[in-house]
Write a structure and sequence with these properties.
By secondary structure, the chain is of the alpha/beta class. The chain is built from 15 helices and 9 strands. Helix 12 crosses helix 15. The model has no long low-confidence stretch (mean pLDDT 92).
Protein backbone atom coordinates (compact mmCIF):
# COMPACT_ATOMS: atom_id res chain seq x y z
CA UNK A 1 0.00 0.00 0.00
CA UNK A 2 1.53 3.33 -1.05
CA UNK A 3 1.59 6.44 1.12
CA UNK A 4 -1.54 8.01 -0.38
CA UNK A 5 -3.54 4.82 0.10
CA UNK A 6 -2.34 4.58 3.73
CA UNK A 7 -3.31 8.22 4.25
CA UNK A 8 -6.83 7.54 2.97
CA UNK A 9 -7.22 4.57 5.30
CA UNK A 10 -5.90 6.53 8.28
CA UNK A 11 -8.24 9.44 7.57
CA UNK A 12 -11.23 7.11 7.29
CA UNK A 13 -10.36 5.48 10.60
CA UNK A 14 -10.13 8.90 12.29
CA UNK A 15 -13.48 9.97 10.83
CA UNK A 16 -15.16 6.67 11.63
CA UNK A 17 -14.01 6.67 15.25
CA UNK A 18 -14.05 10.46 15.73
CA UNK A 19 -10.57 10.05 17.17
CA UNK A 20 -9.21 13.05 19.06
CA UNK A 21 -7.21 11.41 21.86
CA UNK A 22 -3.43 11.75 21.45
CA UNK A 23 -2.71 8.14 22.42
CA UNK A 24 -5.26 6.83 19.92
CA UNK A 25 -3.92 9.12 17.20
CA UNK A 26 -0.43 7.76 17.81
CA UNK A 27 -1.77 4.22 17.31
CA UNK A 28 -3.25 5.29 13.96
CA UNK A 29 0.05 6.90 12.93
CA UNK A 30 2.00 3.75 13.82
CA UNK A 31 -0.54 1.44 12.18
CA UNK A 32 -0.31 3.20 8.81
CA UNK A 33 3.30 4.38 9.07
CA UNK A 34 2.30 8.02 8.76
CA UNK A 35 3.87 10.95 10.67
CA UNK A 36 2.02 11.71 13.90
CA UNK A 37 1.88 15.39 12.91
CA UNK A 38 -0.08 14.47 9.77
CA UNK A 39 -2.56 12.38 11.73
CA UNK A 40 -3.02 15.12 14.33
CA UNK A 41 -3.63 17.80 11.73
CA UNK A 42 -6.43 15.67 10.24
CA UNK A 43 -8.06 15.17 13.63
CA UNK A 44 -7.82 18.82 14.67
CA UNK A 45 -9.19 19.96 11.32
CA UNK A 46 -12.23 17.69 11.39
CA UNK A 47 -12.96 17.67 15.12
CA UNK A 48 -11.69 21.03 16.37
CA UNK A 49 -15.06 21.70 18.04
CA UNK A 50 -16.02 18.13 18.88
CA UNK A 51 -17.27 17.17 22.33
CA UNK A 52 -19.82 14.76 23.73
CA UNK A 53 -21.94 17.70 24.90
CA UNK A 54 -22.88 20.41 22.40
CA UNK A 55 -25.52 23.11 22.03
CA UNK A 56 -26.56 24.15 18.54
CA UNK A 57 -26.62 27.92 18.05
CA UNK A 58 -27.52 27.78 14.35
CA UNK A 59 -30.31 30.11 13.28
CA UNK A 60 -33.20 27.58 13.42
CA UNK A 61 -32.21 26.46 16.93
CA UNK A 62 -31.45 30.00 18.04
CA UNK A 63 -34.93 31.15 17.04
CA UNK A 64 -36.44 28.26 18.99
CA UNK A 65 -34.60 29.03 22.22
CA UNK A 66 -31.14 27.50 22.21
CA UNK A 67 -29.88 30.29 24.51
CA UNK A 68 -32.31 29.05 27.16
CA UNK A 69 -30.97 25.54 26.61
CA UNK A 70 -27.45 26.78 27.31
CA UNK A 71 -28.62 28.53 30.48
CA UNK A 72 -30.28 25.31 31.66
CA UNK A 73 -27.05 23.37 31.09
CA UNK A 74 -25.13 26.02 33.01
CA UNK A 75 -27.55 25.65 35.93
CA UNK A 76 -27.02 21.90 35.92
CA UNK A 77 -23.25 22.31 35.85
CA UNK A 78 -22.91 20.48 32.54
CA UNK A 79 -19.94 21.49 30.42
CA UNK A 80 -20.58 21.87 26.70
CA UNK A 81 -19.32 23.49 23.52
CA UNK A 82 -21.19 25.59 20.98
CA UNK A 83 -21.79 24.34 17.46
CA UNK A 84 -23.85 25.68 14.57
CA UNK A 85 -25.60 22.66 13.15
CA UNK A 86 -26.28 19.15 14.44
CA UNK A 87 -28.29 18.17 11.37
CA UNK A 88 -31.79 18.12 12.89
CA UNK A 89 -32.85 21.70 12.23
CA UNK A 90 -36.55 20.77 12.18
CA UNK A 91 -36.26 19.50 15.78
CA UNK A 92 -34.62 22.53 17.35
CA UNK A 93 -33.34 23.57 19.67
CA UNK A 94 -31.03 20.57 19.49
CA UNK A 95 -28.42 19.57 22.03
CA UNK A 96 -26.08 16.62 22.24
CA UNK A 97 -25.53 15.03 25.64
CA UNK A 98 -23.12 12.14 26.08
CA UNK A 99 -23.05 11.74 22.32
CA UNK A 100 -26.85 11.46 21.93
CA UNK A 101 -29.11 14.06 20.34
CA UNK A 102 -32.01 15.59 22.28
CA UNK A 103 -34.67 18.23 21.89
CA UNK A 104 -35.35 20.71 24.65
CA UNK A 105 -38.99 20.62 25.74
CA UNK A 106 -40.28 22.38 28.89
CA UNK A 107 -36.95 22.06 30.65
CA UNK A 108 -36.53 18.35 29.84
CA UNK A 109 -33.96 16.81 27.52
CA UNK A 110 -35.70 14.17 25.45
CA UNK A 111 -33.79 11.99 23.05
CA UNK A 112 -34.76 12.51 19.39
CA UNK A 113 -36.45 9.36 18.15
CA UNK A 114 -35.72 10.37 14.55
CA UNK A 115 -31.98 10.26 15.29
CA UNK A 116 -31.96 6.55 16.16
CA UNK A 117 -30.86 3.92 13.60
CA UNK A 118 -33.97 1.83 14.29
CA UNK A 119 -36.25 4.75 13.46
CA UNK A 120 -34.38 5.63 10.28
CA UNK A 121 -34.23 2.06 8.97
CA UNK A 122 -37.89 1.40 9.77
CA UNK A 123 -38.88 4.52 7.81
CA UNK A 124 -36.47 3.86 4.95
CA UNK A 125 -38.19 3.09 1.65
CA UNK A 126 -37.34 -0.51 0.84
CA UNK A 127 -36.44 -1.71 -2.63
CA UNK A 128 -39.82 -3.42 -2.92
CA UNK A 129 -41.69 -0.23 -2.09
CA UNK A 130 -39.56 1.76 -4.51
CA UNK A 131 -40.16 -0.73 -7.32
CA UNK A 132 -43.92 -0.55 -6.70
CA UNK A 133 -43.89 3.19 -7.38
CA UNK A 134 -41.97 2.76 -10.62
CA UNK A 135 -38.40 2.74 -9.37
CA UNK A 136 -35.71 1.42 -11.76
CA UNK A 137 -38.39 1.13 -14.43
CA UNK A 138 -36.44 3.18 -16.97
CA UNK A 139 -32.91 2.06 -16.15
CA UNK A 140 -32.73 -0.91 -18.52
CA UNK A 141 -34.11 1.15 -21.42
CA UNK A 142 -31.78 4.03 -20.58
CA UNK A 143 -28.76 1.74 -20.86
CA UNK A 144 -29.77 0.94 -24.45
CA UNK A 145 -30.22 4.56 -25.55
CA UNK A 146 -27.82 5.57 -28.33
CA UNK A 147 -27.09 8.90 -26.65
CA UNK A 148 -27.41 9.33 -22.91
CA UNK A 149 -26.35 12.96 -22.66
CA UNK A 150 -29.97 14.13 -22.86
CA UNK A 151 -30.52 13.45 -19.15
CA UNK A 152 -27.78 15.94 -18.30
CA UNK A 153 -29.40 18.49 -20.62
CA UNK A 154 -32.72 17.89 -18.85
CA UNK A 155 -31.14 18.70 -15.48
CA UNK A 156 -30.19 22.10 -16.91
CA UNK A 157 -33.55 22.61 -18.63
CA UNK A 158 -35.54 22.13 -15.42
CA UNK A 159 -33.21 24.50 -13.56
CA UNK A 160 -31.50 22.05 -11.22
CA UNK A 161 -28.01 23.00 -12.44
CA UNK A 162 -26.57 25.89 -14.43
CA UNK A 163 -25.76 25.77 -18.14
CA UNK A 164 -22.04 25.97 -17.33
CA UNK A 165 -22.23 22.46 -15.93
CA UNK A 166 -22.89 21.08 -19.40
CA UNK A 167 -19.60 22.49 -20.66
CA UNK A 168 -17.71 20.86 -17.80
CA UNK A 169 -19.52 17.53 -18.22
CA UNK A 170 -18.84 17.47 -21.97
CA UNK A 171 -15.17 18.02 -21.21
CA UNK A 172 -15.22 15.09 -18.79
CA UNK A 173 -16.97 12.78 -21.26
CA UNK A 174 -14.47 13.57 -24.01
CA UNK A 175 -11.48 13.09 -21.69
CA UNK A 176 -9.85 9.71 -22.46
CA UNK A 177 -8.29 9.42 -18.99
CA UNK A 178 -9.59 6.57 -16.81
CA UNK A 179 -11.09 5.79 -14.40
CA UNK A 180 -13.74 8.51 -14.16
CA UNK A 181 -15.73 9.27 -11.03
CA UNK A 182 -19.11 10.66 -10.05
CA UNK A 183 -19.15 11.99 -6.50
CA UNK A 184 -22.59 12.52 -4.99
CA UNK A 185 -22.18 15.38 -2.54
CA UNK A 186 -24.05 14.44 0.65
CA UNK A 187 -22.17 16.86 2.88
CA UNK A 188 -24.96 19.42 3.39
CA UNK A 189 -23.09 21.49 5.94
CA UNK A 190 -25.25 24.61 5.62
CA UNK A 191 -26.88 25.45 8.96
CA UNK A 192 -30.63 25.03 8.60
CA UNK A 193 -30.48 22.48 5.78
CA UNK A 194 -31.56 18.85 6.08
CA UNK A 195 -33.20 17.93 2.76
CA UNK A 196 -30.24 15.87 1.52
CA UNK A 197 -30.03 13.97 4.81
CA UNK A 198 -33.72 13.06 4.56
CA UNK A 199 -33.30 11.84 0.97
CA UNK A 200 -30.34 9.66 1.96
CA UNK A 201 -32.17 8.29 5.00
CA UNK A 202 -35.67 7.81 3.61
CA UNK A 203 -35.37 7.54 -0.19
CA UNK A 204 -31.97 5.93 -0.73
CA UNK A 205 -33.01 3.81 -3.73
CA UNK A 206 -34.18 6.88 -5.63
CA UNK A 207 -30.79 8.45 -4.98
CA UNK A 208 -28.94 5.30 -6.04
CA UNK A 209 -30.95 5.01 -9.25
CA UNK A 210 -30.23 8.65 -10.06
CA UNK A 211 -26.53 8.11 -9.37
CA UNK A 212 -26.39 5.15 -11.75
CA UNK A 213 -28.23 7.04 -14.50
CA UNK A 214 -26.01 10.12 -14.27
CA UNK A 215 -22.84 8.05 -13.93
CA UNK A 216 -23.69 6.14 -17.12
CA UNK A 217 -24.41 9.41 -18.94
CA UNK A 218 -21.03 10.77 -17.84
CA UNK A 219 -19.16 7.58 -18.64
CA UNK A 220 -18.11 7.26 -14.99
CA UNK A 221 -16.56 4.02 -13.77
CA UNK A 222 -17.35 4.50 -10.08
CA UNK A 223 -19.84 6.40 -7.95
CA UNK A 224 -18.87 7.66 -4.51
CA UNK A 225 -21.65 8.87 -2.24
CA UNK A 226 -19.83 11.24 0.13
CA UNK A 227 -21.78 11.45 3.40
CA UNK A 228 -21.18 14.00 6.15
CA UNK A 229 -19.75 12.05 9.10
CA UNK A 230 -22.51 13.45 11.31
CA UNK A 231 -25.09 11.61 9.20
CA UNK A 232 -24.23 8.07 10.33
CA UNK A 233 -27.82 6.91 9.87
CA UNK A 234 -27.83 8.13 6.27
CA UNK A 235 -24.73 6.06 5.60
CA UNK A 236 -26.37 3.04 7.25
CA UNK A 237 -29.53 3.48 5.16
CA UNK A 238 -27.54 3.73 1.93
CA UNK A 239 -25.43 0.66 2.75
CA UNK A 240 -28.53 -1.38 3.56
CA UNK A 241 -30.07 -0.28 0.27
CA UNK A 242 -26.92 -1.10 -1.70
CA UNK A 243 -27.09 -4.68 -0.44
CA UNK A 244 -30.69 -4.94 -1.67
CA UNK A 245 -29.83 -3.30 -4.97
CA UNK A 246 -26.89 -5.58 -5.72
CA UNK A 247 -29.08 -8.68 -5.62
CA UNK A 248 -31.76 -7.01 -7.73
CA UNK A 249 -29.35 -5.84 -10.45
CA UNK A 250 -27.61 -9.22 -10.55
CA UNK A 251 -30.98 -10.89 -11.09
CA UNK A 252 -31.74 -8.51 -13.96
CA UNK A 253 -28.33 -9.12 -15.54
CA UNK A 254 -27.40 -5.45 -15.12
CA UNK A 255 -24.79 -5.58 -12.38
CA UNK A 256 -21.77 -5.84 -14.67
CA UNK A 257 -23.08 -3.11 -16.99
CA UNK A 258 -23.18 -0.45 -14.30
CA UNK A 259 -20.59 1.51 -12.29
CA UNK A 260 -19.86 0.30 -8.78
CA UNK A 261 -21.10 2.44 -5.90
CA UNK A 262 -19.27 3.15 -2.64
CA UNK A 263 -20.53 5.09 0.38
CA UNK A 264 -17.81 6.98 2.26
CA UNK A 265 -17.77 9.42 5.16
CA UNK A 266 -16.26 12.89 4.81
CA UNK A 267 -15.51 15.51 7.45
CA UNK A 268 -18.29 17.72 8.80
CA UNK A 269 -16.77 21.27 8.76
CA UNK A 270 -18.76 23.61 6.53
CA UNK A 271 -15.93 24.19 4.03
CA UNK A 272 -15.75 20.48 3.19
CA UNK A 273 -18.96 20.84 1.18
CA UNK A 274 -17.08 22.77 -1.52
CA UNK A 275 -16.40 20.27 -4.29
CA UNK A 276 -12.60 20.37 -4.32
CA UNK A 277 -12.50 20.32 -0.50
CA UNK A 278 -14.81 17.30 -0.62
CA UNK A 279 -12.40 15.57 -2.98
CA UNK A 280 -9.49 16.34 -0.64
CA UNK A 281 -11.41 14.82 2.27
CA UNK A 282 -12.10 11.66 0.26
CA UNK A 283 -8.39 11.44 -0.56
CA UNK A 284 -7.52 11.43 3.13
CA UNK A 285 -6.38 15.05 3.30
CA UNK A 286 -7.66 18.06 5.18
CA UNK A 287 -10.90 19.17 3.55
CA UNK A 288 -9.59 22.43 2.16
CA UNK A 289 -10.44 23.86 -1.29
CA UNK A 290 -7.94 23.48 -4.11
CA UNK A 291 -6.72 26.17 -6.44
CA UNK A 292 -8.16 26.10 -9.96
CA UNK A 293 -7.42 25.29 -12.73
CA UNK A 294 -7.59 22.39 -13.19
CA UNK A 295 -11.31 21.81 -12.80
CA UNK A 296 -12.30 18.51 -11.12
CA UNK A 297 -13.79 17.33 -14.42
CA UNK A 298 -10.21 17.43 -15.74
CA UNK A 299 -8.32 16.34 -12.61
CA UNK A 300 -10.38 15.50 -9.55
CA UNK A 301 -10.43 12.46 -7.26
CA UNK A 302 -7.00 10.77 -7.42
CA UNK A 303 -6.15 13.08 -10.32
CA UNK A 304 -8.86 11.59 -12.55
CA UNK A 305 -11.88 13.23 -14.27
CA UNK A 306 -14.55 13.75 -11.64
CA UNK A 307 -18.04 15.25 -11.54
CA UNK A 308 -19.41 16.40 -8.18
CA UNK A 309 -23.21 16.72 -8.04
CA UNK A 310 -25.34 17.20 -4.94
CA UNK A 311 -27.86 14.72 -3.56
CA UNK A 312 -30.99 16.68 -4.48
CA UNK A 313 -30.03 16.91 -8.16
CA UNK A 314 -29.01 13.26 -8.42
CA UNK A 315 -32.22 12.06 -6.77
CA UNK A 316 -34.27 14.13 -9.23
CA UNK A 317 -32.94 12.30 -12.31
CA UNK A 318 -35.26 9.23 -12.09
CA UNK A 319 -38.29 11.47 -11.53
CA UNK A 320 -37.47 13.58 -14.59
CA UNK A 321 -37.13 10.47 -16.77
CA UNK A 322 -40.52 9.16 -15.73
Amino acid sequence: MDYNARLREASREILEGRIIDDAELRKVADKYNIPLSTVKTLSTFYFHDYSENQVCMGLPCLLKGSREVAKELDKRGIKYTITYCLGYCDKGPVVKLNGKLHTYVDGDFREITEASPDYVLSNRESLGDYLRRGGFGYLDRFLNEDSKFFILELLVKVGLVGAGSLVRWKSMISNPDRPKYLIVNGHEGEPGGFKDRLIMERNPHQLLEGALIIAVALGADEVIVAVNERFRNARLSLERSLNELGSYLAGKGLLNRLPRINVLLVGSPYIVGEETALINSLEGKRGEPRLRPPDPTESGFLGKPTAVINVEVVAAAPVILR
